[in-house]
Design brief:
Elements (H helix, E strand, L loop, with lengths): L18 H12 L5 H14 L4 H8 L3 H16 L4 H4 L14 H12 L14 H10 L8 H10 L4 H8 L3 H7 L1
């Protein structure tokens, strides 16, 4: 077979950039505030426009050939869809569940965490994540919530209910020491 491979090599679909598209991509690459992912994707498209195949792009930019192929395909799909340059380089929306709790419910949690447990008939000196979760359910603020999720919400807000009593009302032993 004259030294040729048995399987034909399929060339990837060509990318043909307009002058303004090329300029926008180059501006993205040179921009100081451009996210590195966007700059990399812009480089992939410019190399594709220069006639490079997926493996050549991958080798030059040190990415997988699947990454080079993915962004070429998305670019071409976006071209036919009439999307702007920056839109074609964006990630697609990711799947996942929508937020489970409304902002009002989260605010109830924060208020509760800042109140004394005794105000709610709890025989404890400080809130735990489990106690907060139980109280939220008891008051009908949420149908269900795990103590772990309560902890995550408090951590995101940098709330530490177990420490709040100390800066609001120092324990008696500290008060007597300062007199």
């Amino acid at each position: 077979m004259n030294g040729e491979s048995a399987l034909p090599q399929l060339a990837p679909p060509p990318v043909k950039l307009e002058a303004d598209e090329r300029e926008q991509l180059e501006r993205l690459i040179k921009g100081h505030n451009t996210a590195q992912q966007l700059a990399l994707r812009a480089r992939i498209i410019l190399l594709a426009d220069a006639g490079k195949n997926h493996r050549e792009i991958a080798r030059q930019l040190q990415v997988s050939h699947q990454t080079a192929r993915l962004w070429r395909q998305r670019w071409l799909a976006g071209q036919s869809g009439g999307l702007e340059v920056i839109e074609r380089l964006q990630d697609e929306a990711r799947s996942g569940a929508p937020a489970t709790f409304e902002p009002e419910q989260v605010l109830h949690l924060f208020k509760l965490a800042c109140d004394a447990p005794s105000e709610y008939g709890r025989p404890i000196s400080q809130w735990t994540n489990r106690e907060l979760a139980d109280e939220l359910i008891k008051q009908g603020i949420v149908e269900t919530i795990s103590p772990r999720h309560v902890g995550r919400l408090l951590a995101e807000a940098d709330l530490k209910p177990h420490q709040s009593g100390y800066w609001l009302n120092p324990p008696p032993t500290l008060t007597s020491m300062t007199r």
